[in-house]
Amino acid sequence: MRIAIASRRNLLKISALTWLTPAWAQTPQAPLPQLGSVVSLPDVTLLGGAVWTPQNQAVSTLVVYWWASWCPFCAVQSPHIEALWRAQKANGLGVLALSIDKQESAASGYMKSKGYSFPAAMLVGDVAKMLPKPKGLPVVVVLKLDKAKGREGKVVFAEGGEMFPEDIEGLKKYI
């Protein structure tokens, strides 16, 4: 009998999404957007009060990143998202991080304590309606933006669950 060995990413997803996710967080959520689908982007009020608008972004590629301050997998992944953003923002990469924390103070305090500078907002109101959190945490969706359309991006990558550092670094290929 031959036993199939799961890839380390799939093994991590199983543990992250099933065993260690609290029961209240395992409610059905939006599916990951399909590759090639188009996502409309709303105006977003960032932590701290600034407004992020899709039309005003000088980026060709946008990483949308759902996270939470209490998520141990996000704690491992977020420094790599920050490093990617810092290294590639001059090349047209943007990040929009959406916290699912219940309190804005938890999200902003966490960002400040870790020294993260990528744009982050709370997943509430119209933002939650237009960009509902897909199943899993953390979640990364990469959009290629069409400046002619302003508020829309084509999904070129979607992943639910913790990504490895080399996978996050590899997102720069979408720029």
What does this structure look like?
- The chain has 175 residues and is an alpha/beta fold.
- It has one domain: 3-Layer(aba) Sandwich (Glutaredoxin), CATH 3.40.30.10.
- It is 29% helix and 23% strand.
- A six-stranded mixed beta sheet has the order 1-8-7-4-5-6. It has a two-stranded antiparallel sheet with strand order 2-3.
- A hairpin with a 5-residue loop joins strand 2 (44-45) and strand 3 (51-52).
- The N and C termini lie far apart (45 Å).
- The model is unreliable at 1-27 (pLDDT under 50).
Keywords:
single chain; 175 residues; alpha/beta; Glutaredoxin; 6-stranded mixed β-sheet; two-stranded antiparallel sheet; 5 helices; globular; disordered N terminus
User: Reading side by side through the largest sheet, how are the strands ordered?
Assistant: 1-8-7-4-5-6
How many strand units?
8
CATH fold-type name: Glutaredoxin
The whole-number mean of residue pLDDT values reads: 86
Relevant CATH superfamily: Glutaredoxin
Q: Report on the biggest sheet.
A: 6 strands, mixed
Q: Helical element count?
A: 5
Shape: globular
CATH architecture: 3-Layer(aba) Sandwich
> How many domain regions?
1
Which sequence of SSEs, written as H and E, runs from N to C? HEEEEHEHEHEEH
Q: Roughly how many Å is the radius of gyration?
A: 16 Å
Q: What CATH first level would be assigned?
A: Alpha Beta
Structural class: alpha/beta
**Low confidence ranges:** 1-27
Helical content band: 25-40%
Alpha carbon gap, first and last residue: 45 Å
Taken as a percent bin, the fraction of beta residues is 15-25%
